[in-house]
Write a structure and sequence with these properties.
The protein is an alpha+beta fold and about 110 residues long. The chain has three helices and four strands; from the N terminus they run E-H-E-E-E-H-H. It has a four-stranded mixed β-sheet with strand order 1-2-3-4. The chain is elongated.
């Protein structure tokens, strides 16, 4: 999975990049084919925005499903945490839809 991080109107800390890559790579446990994830970090300069001044958009690209999530918070990590929770929920739904649910193994076990 390729992860690209873009920031608009802001400078990102190095630990944000590491945390982002670590959490997004943990999404591979769902076995959903995603080739690339774009993380966009936007900062609002308006002081009246206050707790909603940072916005993070996560977008998947590639052969797998199109998944998009957005998070808003008072800093980059808070917004990313909100976005990753929505992203994980959507990946989990795709994973559950593609699960193979059959009772053949239970029927064979009862026949023995």
């Amino acid at each position: 999975m390729d992860i690209s991080i873009r920031s608009h109107k802001a400078a990102l800390a190095e630990d944000f990049r590491e945390i982002t890559k670590e959490k997004l790579l943990s999404m591979e446990r769902f076995n959903v084919p995603i080739q690339r994830i774009v993380v966009e970090v936007l900062h609002e300069n308006n002081p009246k925005q206050g707790k909603k001044s940072h916005r993070v958009n996560l977008t998947s690209h590639g052969a797998g499903p199109f998944i998009r999530a957005e998070g808003i918070g008072h800093n980059d990590l808070a917004a990313f945490d909100e976005a990753i929770s929505g992203f994980e929920l959507q990946i989990r739904k795709v994973h559950e839809r593609h699960k193979e649910i059959s009772r053949d193994t239970l029927r064979r076990k009862d026949a023995m």
